[in-house]
Amino acid sequence: MTDSPNPLRILAPTGSTKMIAREISRRRFISLAALTGGAAVLAACAPGGDTGTGSAPQATGGTLEDSLSVYTWGDYDSPEVIEAFTANLGPRVTLDSYSSNEELIAKLIAAKGTSGYDIVVPTGVFIPQMIENGLLMQLNKELLPNLANMDPSALGRAWDPDNNYSVCKAWGTTGFVYDKNVISRELTTWGDFFDAAQNEASGRTSMSDDPAGIIGAYFWARDEDWNTDDAAALDACEEFLVNEIAPHISAFDSYAGSNAIPQGTHALMQSWNGDARLGIMESSDPDRWQWVLPGPVTELWMDNWAIAEGAPHPEAAHAFINDSMTPENLMLNLDYIGYNVGGANMEAEAEAFGLELPEFIFFSEAQLAAMSEQELNDSQSRRVEIWNAMKAAAGA
């Protein structure tokens, strides 16, 4: 990670160990669209909609308020970090969780600056629309001196080049895990994943409950642009996933590490790196499982600290984000959630810390070069249709 001055920037434009979030699918960018009006939410936040912008900073470095409300993904912060923040600085922290970016955005839009939340943690691809629609408050970076502890690769991302509204919280990727007792050959690519799903692991394969990951895997296997809005390409994707793959899928599970890996209920599972790491660490027979960061390409996602427009406790919000970027707290969060938290020189520090399975968290330049980020475009509703059709065909 730290060999290159900015390894993440070789990725496509826009763009945790105990990552629990047992019930919450953090990568489900649009999975609730058909059920919760997420498509309308995304349309409301798309470029060309409202022309509002995030407000100027509301924190000046004054006295911290006595409380702080954080709206985030499930179990995404070390309790030690939160408890020490209250003990040392005073504000009591209340955590509330959401299951998708759509849910977060819908609540902020409906509240119109009165949500009562201070800190939110959106995924990078959503940040430009959130800024444009006035859902985020501009940061006072003078109150965030611990930005100096972050690796340059985690800052200056295309969605917020100057980090005026957001700071890296954690980032990760998507791969798969297989049971070596069932699949004796070596699997290394997304093509291998789909082949094994139709053969040795037929009826014992799970994919993430996430249209981005499912549809992405089809294009990743072909080394094609997974953000395409080409109708013919999406039709071919649907044909393959619905007719050739769905009959072999037994579950759509975004958290294989929670139960499926420790309990051995599936032989082949699409999984995020941190969740796979958690499951293998919790397995009674960890040598049974093989994690694969598959080629030729795969996903990179990044979640970000941000402050909601109308935040009632902006001083405490800045203090909390800054406190989370101390070297000690970066390591505590890395150790708790099992995803890279963007701190500088953390690979060497993690080794000294004795972190288990660091290869699930830290990646080479070659691996990073094979990752790209999701982009929102006009094909999102079509992608939800494909996802729904695949689940229906699989009987899910």
Structural commentary:
This protein has about 400 residues and is an alpha/beta fold. The chain has two domains: about 5-170 and about 300-360, D-Maltodextrin-Binding Protein, domain 2 (3-Layer(aba) Sandwich); about 170-300 and about 375-395, D-Maltodextrin-Binding Protein, domain 2. Helix content is about 35%, strand content about 15%. It has helices spanning about 35, 40-45, 80-90, 100-110, 125-130, 190-195, 210-220, 230-245, 260-265, 275-280, 315-325, 325-335, 345-355, 365-370, 380-395; strands at about 65-70, 90-95, 120, 135, 165-180, 205, 250, 270, 290, 300-310, 370. Helix 3 links the parallel strand 1 and strand 2 (about 90-95).
Which key terms come to mind for this protein?
396 residues; alpha/beta; D-Maltodextrin-Binding Protein, domain 2; 2 domains; 35% helix; 15% strand; globular; disordered N terminus
